[in-house]
Amino acid sequence: MFKQLADPARRSFSVFIDGAEVSARDGETVAAVILRAPPHIARHTPVKETPRAPFCLMGVCFDCLATVDGETSVQTCLVEVQPGMKIERPVGKLRITL
Amino acid sequence: MNSRHDILIVGAGPAGMAAAIELRRLGFAPLVVDEQSAPGGQIWRDVERPRPDALRNALGPDYAAGAEVAGQFRASGVDYRPGTRMWHIEPGLRVFLSQAGKAFVAEPKALLLATGAQERPAPIPGWTLPGVLTVGAAQILMKGSGQIPERPVWIAGSGPLPILYMRQLVAAGGQVAGYLDTTPRGAALRALPHLRSALRGWADLRKGLAWMRALKAGGLHIEKHVTDLVATGTERLEALSYRTADGKAHRVEAEVLLLHEGVVPSIHGTLSVDCAHVWDEAQAALRPALDDWGMTSVEGLYVAGDGAGIAGVRAALARGRLAAQGIAARLGREAGAAEVAGARAELRAASASRGFLDAVFPAPGSSVEIPDDTIVCRCEELTAGEIRAAARIHRGGPNQVKAVTRCGMGPCQGRQCGYTVNRILASAYGQSQADVGFFRIRPPLKPVTLQELAALDEGREAP
Ligand code: FES
């Protein structure tokens, strides 16, 4: 869906999405990495369990919620990716409480 | 770790940075918090990063110019805390923030919200499918990650941003499958009365026209006055259909579709403390009512930047300076007449072309019908049909509709459905959008966890 432009100055490293190794680069957000890794989704919705992917990338849609290093419902478009991060895509009835 | 600063600035985009720089110059020590990990806001997102020449050139000089402001911001020595979210404001100015999983409280004498804008939700059937994003999102991916759509991308909507993004994308080696311009017929004509004022902002307008010419010369497929846009697919976007000005229906395969229908001020903060707001007819959006310095109807609470009404980056810088000068005066230190006059003149000049832009790219009004099967509330997955049904039965405003349907109660707090509900109710009741109004906004402004709240106990009681 998305591809990276060459940028040799950036360090790249591995992170894990649902256990699968994915390459990431310095300074990008977790949501950006999710958009390069098939099936390119962040989660399934708690209401009707439909797949969702990061949509706004600026913190106002909450479609990028995923589990990051054990923390649930993280807005992944606001989190900078770190080497070795473990990202999981929640499915179903995990509700976000306000 | 509660903050003892007299001045709190929320947002480190152009307005927040300009205010911080000015306040430092005037001898104050504000605290600046921002959700992102680096200064710049959305417009100058990740602007400090060194980039390969090709990407820097593709993003263009207006973007690169942000590096200088970010440099001054850093050099000002201001106390800046990135990765910090504001989730609640109490009158009397207690502000609840959260950084690295820990909540803390600030009790400033003056609070400046420089939280900018968001893209106006552009609901079409299928807009929740993976593969559909906003144009702003794609631009953020390019700035922050050096990332562009893998294959030719479809872009649909209206406004200056799609034109800018297409130019940047093509310059970076990306491809546009087609631009489906949804600007209604006749908008250009209606914009003519604004042209005289806009000519003072001629440089900006000429830039936009030049980009469009270059894109067309490069063979851009563009359709004008497109309607009935629908995204389809089961697990992800597979195709789109639309109707062109000649009435013909089209269907094309698509992997990525980018939507954009302009930007609106971010108003959740000011709505949550019941600041007075006005409905901006030309921008079809609410903005806080402000005095000459950017102060809201709540004493000590200021707004600068696009959150004060969409006006662009130059105006945001000027408004940031003015708010800083107003805050300084409030705290007993005058900024100097020449500095104030300079900021005001700059704001006037920067706003010259706005009326024209608003008229050329009008927001979709309540007369444009949103199909019943379109999801309006992305969080609770409610459709336009369900909102209309609730309106028919209850005849209530946005808050009643929210109470009976849960529309706007999800984590985004109505940021993706508020204006759509407004449009649907306005057309259902034959009222103006100004009269229908917006959801009442309740804390928290952003979801906050119990663990985060626990940190508050160290200093004071939780709210
Ligand atoms: S992608 Fe919209 S909040 Fe993260």
TrEMBL record, chain A:
UniProt entry tagged with the keyword Oxidoreductase: yes
Alphabetically ordered keywords of this record: Oxidoreductase
Annotated Pfam families: Fer2_4 (PF13510)
Any one Gene Ontology molecular-function term assigned to this protein's record: iron-sulfur cluster binding
Oxidoreductase as UniProt keyword: yes
Protein name: (2Fe-2S)-binding protein
Source species: Pseudotabrizicola alkalilacus
Lineage: Bacteria, Pseudomonadati, Pseudomonadota, Alphaproteobacteria, Rhodobacterales
UniProtKB/TrEMBL annotation, chain B:
Transmembrane feature ranges: none
Keywords, sorted A to Z: Oxidoreductase
Signal peptide residue numbers: none
FAD/NAD(P)-binding domain boundaries: 6-318
Superkingdom to which the source organism belongs: Bacteria
Molecular-function GO terms, alphabetical: oxidoreductase activity
InterPro entries membership: BFD-like_2Fe2S-bd_dom (IPR007419), BFD-like_2Fe2S-bd_dom_sf (IPR041854), FAD/NAD-bd_sf (IPR036188), FAD/NAD-binding_dom (IPR023753), Metab_Enz_Cyan_OpOx_G3PDH (IPR051691), Opine_Oxase_asu/HCN_bsu (IPR017224)
BFD-like [2Fe-2S]-binding domain mapped to chain residues: 375-426
Gene3D superfamilies in alphabetical order: BFD-like [2Fe-2S]-binding domain, FAD/NAD(P)-binding domain
Protein name per Swiss-Prot or TrEMBL: FAD-binding protein
